[in-house]
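Hi support team,

I'm opening this ticket because the web form for multi-chain structure prediction keeps timing out on my end. I have pasted the exact lines I submitted so you can reproduce it. The total is 505 residues across two entries, so I didn't expect it to be a heavy job. Is there a limit I'm missing, or should I split the entries? Thanks in advance, R.K.
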Amino acid sequence: MKKEENRKLTVQELPVGDIVEAGTAVNFLTGSWRSQRLVWDKDKCIHCLTCWISCPDNSIKIAPDEKKTAVVTGIDYDHCKGCGICASECPVKIGAITMEQEKK
Amino acid sequence: MIKAVYSKGKLVAKTGNEVMAEAMRQIEPDVVAAYPITPATEIVQIFSQFVADGIVKSKYVAVESEHSAMSATIAACAAGARAMTGTSSQGLCLMWEMLYIASGLRLPIVMAEVNRAISAPINIHGDQSDTMGARDSGWIQIYSENSQEAYDNMIQAVKIAEKAKLPTMVTTDGFIISHCMEVVELYPDQDVKEFVGEYKPERYLLDTKKPYTLGSVDLQDYYFEHRYQLAQAMRDAKNIILDVAKDFEHSFGRKYDLYEKYQLEDAEIVVVVIGSAAGTAKVVVDELRAKDVKAGILKIRVFRPFPVEQIVKDLAHVKAIAVMDRADSCSGAYAPLYSDIISSLYSAGIVTPKVENYVYGLGGREINIEHIMQIYDNLRKIASGLQKPSSQVEYVNVRKK
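Hello R.K., no limit was hit. The queue was backed up. Here is the completed structure from your submission:
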């Protein structure tokens, strides 16, 4: 379903059953909900990707490095809600992710 | 007594539950998710035996509650499967939240529902309080007078649900139909499979080529339009139900409508009733007709969508009507069927019939020939002006001073 600008779809045009295009969560910036902000220490990170696979909001950014191996490249603060799962899943000996109070 | 009408049909003695399970076996849905113990009757338990014995290829999901049963059925249906379930009474109550999600997402789930009383006090016997409570949930509701209708309705429900894109429940009166053995004509498996056909959803979540979001947030800007679509789909479903009934008659020879007219054409006094009590009322009407009393019955088969336009045409000429509800709405006013009949008549400008409301049979309380005869006697007095119609709900066969 494609919404034209400034014009909302009518009953006849809308797909039935609350169907919308895939991946709409991208447009919904849930980062504003955050009270705890994760801090990622690039130097400590071993790129095991445990945080990436654990993140419920797909907010750990990854990309292939020169050896075509996936590495963590940063955090998507537009969508990260600050749930802290990544910080608790990050291996204890590594401790590359810590949580701190979100500043106003 | 049911007579064979289909050349390849077979007369068998089965309970209402058994024939509903038979219909499910023949339909062979992709997924059945259910909680197969009390308050549900043995419908899904029998079906789970078919799965265990390898008679059907359906995937059976045993869940921990009816809320989960409906959730799993919704998920299966959204994923692209033909999905069914079954329950009763408290089980339907526990599904409540999910009933609205099934209809809101326009998923064509079919449910076998046995009408049983709602607690408290605890009672497992027949009345229609459970599904009457779910009457505004956006589910099509088809009620059955006997086991044959239950079987036929289940088969039709699959096509109705998938064409209307609305979940559909088929009901029988608890114990009176569900647990009583009757003669039923079953059709061959292959013929039923051909009738229901293969389920081909336009869109389904497991279709990776066409990904989409289902069930997202829908606020002030779109929710209302989606609810309008749902209400309109329910209005449009009347024609779909009639089309499927026509196909069914063509295939198997049994005729169905939104409601059944029994001696209604020239009737002066009429009982409007849903479910098994219609069978009892037919005996009363036959006795009255033998004495030249113009008595008739309008038996509701499809309660949701409510056949408002059609009903008013068939009731306009009647002098006195008794609307019999096997559920009380505790609204401080009237019971559900009565309210719908009255608003149908009044909105069509038909105010001549005198209409009374009788609540009967709660918790499986007996409703016999003499009770219904008494109602017709009251109608005769009202029709001839000897008695004024009651202005409140009348309760049949309840002890009170």
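A quick check on our side: The longest strand of chain A covers residues 70-75. Let us know if the file doesn't open in your viewer.
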